[in-house]
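Weekly sync notes, structure subgroup
Attendees: PM, AL, DS (notes)

Item 1: joint prediction request from the bench team. They want all two components modeled as one assembly rather than separately. Inputs as received:
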Amino acid sequence: MMATSNPLKKRKPIDGHAVLVYSLLFLGAFLLLIPFYWMLTNSLKTEAEAMANPPTLLPMASYVELEGESLEVSLGEKDDTNQTIRVTIKVGADHPRNGEEHVVAQADIHRNLTPRWENYPRALERMDFMGALANTTVITVLCVIGQILSSSLVGFGFARFRFRGRNFLFMLMLSTMMLPPQVSMIPLFILFRNLGMIDTIWPLVIPMWLGSPFYVFMFRQFFTQVPEELVEAARIDGAGNTMIYWRLMLPLSGPVIAIVAIYTFMFVWNDFLGPLIYLNSPENRTLTLALNAFNGNYGVSDVQLLMAASFVTMLPCILLFFAAQRYFVQSTAASGLKG
Amino acid sequence: MTLARVARWLLALAAALVVLWSFFDVGLRAYQRWDSARKDTRTELTILHWGDNDEIRIVEELVAAFEAEHPDIRINRLHASDYDTKLNTMFAAGDPPDLFYLRYEDVPKLAGMGLLEPIDTPVARDVKATGEDWIGEFYPVLLDAFKYDGQKLGAGPLYGIPKDFTPMLMYANLQLFQRAGVDVPYDGWTWAQFDDAMAKISALEDPNGEVYGSVIASWPAVLRNMVWSYGGDYFNGTDFTDVTLDEPEAIAALEHVRRMRFDDKTAYNATGGDAQGLGEQEFYTGRIGVVGPIGRWRTPRFRSIDTFDWDVVPFPHLEGKDPASVVAVVAWGMSSTTKHPEESFKLMKFLCGTQGQKLTARSGLAVPCTKPVAESDDFLQPGQKPANAKLFIDLIDTARIGQMPPEPEFARIFEEEVAQTIQYGKQSAEVTGKNTEARWLAELGSPLRNRSFPRMAWGVIVGSSGVLLVLVVGGLFLWLRREKLGAIDRAQERAGWVFISPWIVGFLVLTFGPMGLSLLLAMSRWTSMQPLGEAEFVGLGNFGHMVSYDASFMKSVWVTTYYALLAVPFGQVLALLVAVLMNQKVKGIAIYRTVFFVPSVVSGVALATLWVMMFDNKRGIINRVLGWGYQLLAPAIDRVNELLIALGSDHVLLNRPPDWFGVDAELFAIPAYVVMALWGVGAGMVIYLAGLKGISESLYEAAKIDGAGRMRAFFSVTLPQLSPLIFFNLVMGIIGSFQVFTQVYVMTNGGPGNATLVYVLKLYREAFEYHKMGYASAMAWVLFIVLLILTGIVVKSSKSWVHYEGLK
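Output from the run, pasted for the record:
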């Protein structure tokens, strides 16, 4: 952005390394974006086109020139010799010529790019997007805050204090990561039902306020690397444990917080089984439950709407990552400590 | 710079506004609900149903009408897209809905456990009181489907009132019939006539792709129609021990499907996650002659076809055998624990009454169950397709109830075995029949089924574990007090415990309790739909069952190992390499980082649908691209294959792109999931990137001064510095890949056959489909122990390659 050309500067020779990096970046990005391209292009098609075989690369529609007006048509039966085709005009219900049928020569039909933007409002309306968004946001925000606070507290405890049983408890905590969550599903459901919390957000939020082994481990690894001298210095200045945690450790752990926030956000935002089991009422449902409603009992119907809805649903995750990624890049505090 | 800052501020502001609004919105709604519930003194009934938006609207409308008629009743309408999980969890927690959708296939299972309320008495009372024989308006065969005498359907108490049904038939593309010069078989056809017609239709040419005679739907419930049409069945008698799939009629029927798909190639062999669904969608292309046996549910969607005319025709039958139709019927059933049986019955009668049947009829999704509505224009809908709508009602005459054992395992065993014949074409129908019977009898012969065991002594267990807990905690406390600590150490200890206390609480309540319970359950036989008190102690019986009586257990172990062996190394190496790439200081790297990360945020149904579309053999983009490559390579591959055959090898290389979830699924379905997992490489990349950013620049400078090149610096600085993270990611990767579940559950659900039956999916089925909580817990503990061992090995080896610095 600040690149101003300096005539005095010698022209650099072509950097082989940079060429390699850029070509790998391009290639990787290209491959990774294909599925997204597929999602986007299908979200802008009609249902018939989304299911077409062979598939179209872009949302297209057929048009016929009638009395100087180019009108969109749907194709019908062909004649036996493949010369002419029956078409039905499709230009919206309020147009006077809508629904007219004509037989035209195959050659008169031309295909134009026709993205169906209306799929987006339709998809959002169908899944009651606003309500689901509010529910998901509340749950996610509470979970992210809880996860960061609780996991960093516990990680701090494991990292900076000597107490008997510490190593045993730490190994115990790590081993609980290996338990398939399906095992505890029913006992937990019974527990939360007895607490009267079914159809509320609490069964989804409370576990996140009690630390997760995965994130505790990450915080603990990070906190163990903070030099003891720094903590001693703080102690000499009269800081207690809470102060050291709040004013020294947390601000230092920006990169870990960013990772925990992103991971928790993604997990909660996309969680399906939890909301499915604990939330009952339609007005409490989250985005994933609303998305799954496109998957009827007879397979997915309206694939194009599902794709549109999925795209909108994952936008917040993309934006969040884009905004938060500079925290792992600018972890100056962490690297500065080491030098 | 300023522009980027403005954008960031705007983004942050927007996010803050969304969060504020969300809390306000949710809070307000919560208050309103609490407020109205406080003022509401009406009786509350809970009902649970499934369905898409049309169906939701129907139930909503009925509920509103009922509430208007009965001001003293309030209805709490629940809807679930993953219906079975929802219903099972509610039953398991002892809090089932008062009324719920009930498929007749589930009646033996639920009634057998005493979870359904028989409704003969209220029906008789109501008919007497109102003087209207409304129950007589229902087609008798549909009512029979919900009668169960403990052994077979069709006799005994009535457990539900049918709300809608559909017989299985075929949808025909009239244009293709006309072009092929075949008469549309409105009055039925024999298999010989069918084959003849299919040959003629398949021979037609179409510029856009191959024309197929048929798509044969083949999940167990509808495949039965095929077997019936040959005069065979799944079982002889209703004690369900004599499987007749190995008798000539059934063998001929299954062989016929295999022949149409693999020898004659007149039937389209659908691929993809939901093979049946995609096969039916192929009908839209206009290159499929007939699709079936399927039901009325496709009608509303097929009405959007305007490139050809279509109609419904009966399913064929063997010459000399009577035509028979499978019917799918759904009723409203009542849970036996309902607190308001009278109100529930009133509601049930209303939901299945004339108004409900009419709404169903008009939606076009199903056939109404009462004669007057079914034969009215509400259902026949003159002027709308299909013109031959009356066929749906006429098929009632040939409708039969498919008797199924109460154990849901049979359908799964059959599904797994039959795929070998009709999906892969590599096992004869006779072997399929024999294997199905053998596996089914092994399942029935397990001591877990037919031995009786003593009840779990919960009182003793709870009491003794309570005493033990007190002793352990007390002992620990005393032991901690005995050792005299200095003031500083005591302060350290106290602070440490305070800081880790959130996890301690979470561990005890959310992990230790459930874990202890599951350990006890692993040694028990317990159906999760019944009270815990009825659990029986079987010792190590569950583990014996795994090894000796359950063939798909070992299969699931193999499938999971296959996945882990591919996913862990590829995933870790790729994540590390991508992170190194993302750590380069080049322009626009922020954009690239986002691009590489974004795939890992797609999940659930969207992810599944997207990849099923991408991996589709015919219209998926992956095989289209691979196809071009294979065209170039085909001569070389053929040469190699000639050589292989000459050398006496049974296996040859594929000379076409693999049909990932179709005929090549046995080998390629798992790699397809690995490719999907690799797409989400961003999640692992993030951790490595954070680690790379933490490596001090001075180390690289030192390496440079020592004369190390880029590669050398990578191996001597980067890898050792990252080794704690590599270790961490490796452990998490192993755990994650052994627990892979969600994608498989949503996409292929273990199929085709059992090619993708991963361990946790098998466990999930045992727990929530078969309700064998004890067995599922035992499986969970096996997984737990295997993971412990694997992690132990990694930890042991890590001492030699993981480099730690700083405090420990």
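Discussion: The first helix of chain B runs from residue 2 to 39.
Action: AL to compare against the crosslinking data before next sync.
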